[in-house]
Amino acid sequence: MTVTPAQLRAFASRAEALTAEIRELCGSAPAEPAERAHLQAALHAADWLARGAEDLQHAAEDLARLRSQPLCGFGWGVCPEHGNTLSSRAGVATCRVCRRTWNYDRLGQPCREPVTWKVTDPAGTETRMCDGHVLGARAAMGGATFIRLDAGAFDEQM
Ligand SMILES: [Zn+2]
Ligand SMILES: [Zn+2]
């Protein structure tokens, strides 16, 4: 089953509605002193729900962005933040810098990160790649132009 951004957005709005209901009910009731702490706890829980609604909303946006972008497709995986820093052992890939792990041989599989950069080498050849792969390209491709695709396409100085 595929989860859609719309489904996540629906969860987010249900969490928002629930938050509002709890706040209205528990925040306005004139409580006995003995009950007050419990209503405070309920209001505190509503704060967590509000936070959860935001996270769900972000997850929906990120998922929608991912679905709308082509994938990098380089022949090997990278750490999205650190680039060519993965070691693979016994089917588990680990970034040597941040220690993040993936429970599959990420290093040995084609990259499935979204394309975020367009790189043009001095000969004019364009390659599209993800955040992680652009790090290695920066080190290897002197004189290339790096354009970030989702930030209005600006040229960045090397
Ligand atoms: Zn890393
Ligand atoms: Zn990549």
From TrEMBL:
Source superkingdom: Bacteria
Mind telling me what this protein is named? Uncharacterized protein
User: What is the species of this protein?
Assistant: Nonomuraea helvata
Taxonomic lineage is: Bacteria, Bacillati, Actinomycetota, Actinomycetes, Streptosporangiales
